[in-house]
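Feature request, filed as a ticket because there's no other form

It would be nice if the structure record came with a short human-readable summary line next to the tokens. Right now we just get the raw output. Example of a typical job, pasted below so the devs can see what we mean:
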Amino acid sequence: MNRITRRIISVLLSLALIFTGINLQADNAKADDADSIKISTAEQLALIGKDENYPLDGNYTLENNIDNVTFTIGQTENTYPDSFTGTFDGNGHSVTLNINAEKTYQGLFGTINGATVKNVVVKGSITSTRGYVAGITPKAVNSKIENCGADLTIKLTGITATNIGGITGYAENSTVSNCYSKGSISGKIKYCGGIIGQIQKSTNVSNCYNTAEISTTLASAQRVGGIVGYANTTSTLSSDIKNCYNSGVITGNGQVGSIYGFLTKTTNSSNIYYVENTHEKSYGFGNEVDVSGITMISTDELKTLTEKLGEAYVDDETNGYPVLSWEVNTNTDKEDTETLNKLVKVLPSGVIRPKFNEVKNIVTYVSDLINAKDEYRDKGIKVSIKSVSNRFDTDKTFVEPDGTLHYYYKNMFENPGSNMNFENVDVVFNLTLNNVTVEYIPSCVQLRWDLDKVKDDLNTVASNYESEQILGENENLDAVVSNLQLPTYPTVKYNEKNTICKWIKTTYTSSNTDVISVAKNADWDNNYNNMYYKASVYRQNEDTDVTITATFTFERFNDSTEASGVTETFTKKIKVKVLAYDEVKEESKKLDEKLNAYKDNMSDFTTGGALDFENVKGDVQLATPRKLGLDGKYYSFDVKSSDTSVMEVYGYRTYTYRPLPGEEAKEVTLNVTVSSKENPNIKATREIKLKVVPLTDKEINDAITFMNNAKNNFFEFIKNNNANRDNITGDLKTFYGIYENEDGSVYSSTYVNKPNNNGIIVKIHNPEEPVPDNQRYWISSDKNIVDDETLRVTAPEYDTVVTVGALISHEVYENYAKRYADNEVYGSKFAQLADQTVTVDLKVKGEKGEVPPTTEAPTTIAPTTVESATTENPITEEVTTIQPETGTATQTATTGNNNIQTTIDNSKKTTTDSGISKKKLTVKGLKAKKAKKKISIKWKKNTYSSGYVIKYRALSKSKKYKKIILKSNKKNKLTLKRKYKYRIKIRAYKIINNVKVYGKWKTITTK
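Raw output as currently delivered:
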């Protein structure tokens, strides 16, 4: 029947209804069960699930339209409603909702499970502050929704809401067919679809369309689509979406599309259309997906789409667009056609999974399904196969023309890498009643394993299992002395070839767990070829026989829901003899052999090169457990020095103190002990002698010359791209240390690029104040111009002199300076190599150049010396205070014993702040909230401030704070990993006349 003919019949039928007063829709929609419960009022509707005469598993028929329904069927005081599990036949009537709720699961039904809802249109509006909202039901599991419509205004007004749909918000193992959605959906939504918000497992959608406008206010909307928002299926539980279209505008960012928001490659799309300008993409996100079945069309093409969409659609008489046939009452076929079409709807529309050894013929299987229904039994309906096509293995026959089934089987010995577990066969059935034939097309017929053949393969594995594959480092199973390795995937010989059977899982048990204990979990080997259970061997005082039992299980697809998996297992017993063992003696001997390599794995700590044990001049790198082939988790190392005044041991290194010039070389002995953590009696020791040679006057004098060169060339190390110190126009450069070339020249280096020799390094110059990440290495007399952490330069208004410097020490001799501070000869020399303050005055070019005669010169505080200062003349940090009454800023810096104070008259500058109350900079509402993997720190925004300073530290990890500066008062939160317990401090600051004024610290400690 073509489209024109259908439209003529539709008009004639409508006229007939007017003149005869016959409600054909109501007649056709009568409930199948004569004992169904009739619903005529909203009050009766509210009794479902609340009254014993209106059970949730009942069979209901709607007698007329119902208006102003303000509740959801099955809703309880709890968050999760009671599921409807019966049948609800709307009988062609409508229910108008008027729901305004502050809890989840809002719609006609809260949830349905194993239910059927059909022949009903939901109208009106739903407003909710939560997720899971839909016209028919927010959640459908193992259910059918057919011949239903939603003409709703859905508004989500609260937090981000998930699983929103015109028909259902979430569908699992369900079918939605012959349904439409109109109206609008808006709010902070994700997982939202015009028909379904989210599908899981084998959920199929057919003959559905959406005209509703969907919009989200989320900054990054996720998984919103005109038909399905989130198509979340797997290779074994695929879904079919077919004969659908969308003409509703979809608005949002992120994973948004006219048909799908998020699409998986196991969601099959066929004969699907969307109108241009509803959204620029058919799907928002998908990986390796097939969208060849989705077509974009124009509005005019939509009017010609009815025939392509199939017999479920007819032309709308008003605008010519495709609508569902039940909407306009065009079912004018003869009685046999009506019967068969109705039958198709009640037959499984999804994946048919016949059970091995129970279903031999698929035609007989479908016939039995039909005859199991009273309405169709004995009507003489015949089932035949029209066409068959395999989706994967096209060379084999799985379904014969007469319906005979051949179940899936793959020889895994010959195809060990195959991941397939079944064959999907597309079968088109013909259902014939008298002279009328209609097609019945389930999603597919899925044929699982031929279990008889699988059991034969399991027996083959058990019979051919190679027992020697569990040996590990043992030579044979009759003389086991070390741990065994039990493979998860067994190796067997098949057709004279060894094969790892990764389609079989092997588990093991021991007849004597005191001698051989099998681990519960298996781990991959280094090459990821196989997984092994560790079988720990505990040798006894005498030889012991143990039986290892290997159990083999088929690890391919087992469908527990249909009990079609392979439940049989096969076993093999392996005899093992564990030889007697003196643990302490033999294990100690092994450790002693390991220690033979200890001395060879010691090295010069500074250069990493070989160590001269008779001529030690620096720190020593000790051998680590890994170097000796030991795991530090199971063995402990203890190294003691015979003379800690010469050599101290810290972990796996030493701090070496050479004798002073003129003194004798000193010998020191390192006593090394390694022992088992499980049994401390298992241990071995070594004595390693070293001779530490004295320092020379030349070495010390050369180091002093090196230090002086570093101080004299300080500007060269930090100048970066600036040509000279009187014309600073760009950022300066930080460095980790200063090092010396063989020719005596000096150069700076970062930590990453530092050479393997001792140099002069920059140190923290203000240790009494906690500083994050040890960043406060640099001295700056004006931090607003030259940052004291990064040496980044911010151009001032006028040219300004800023003093920049650092505290530096020689990596080696700073320790000698502490140890020999009172030595009359060398104390003063070593002092020159530790904690040396070096500074330089730099003129930073201002945006307006030199200070004009009428303007007071910008002032910054400099130390008493230009090039450098000594430890007797330290430089402290600049202190700035605001005088609220006079509007002046006072800057003070200390240089030695002299205080220099400069006053700037801020009253001459244009500003609305002649003073500031630090109370206005108080941070309020500071709190911490734990999530699954993070801790969220929040506080109330201080709109008066310019930004915030945050310091935090992990209490169990570090005593040093990390620092974050927020240069805007709009951001008021911080996210940290939940791994640690933190102490967090925060204060607000405001910048006035280029000066930062800080509020008080607020502190919080996380739980």
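Something like this underneath would help us a lot:
The chain has six domains: 23-327, 335-343+368-448, 454-581, 586-695, 698-908, 918-1005.
The radius of gyration is 41 Å.
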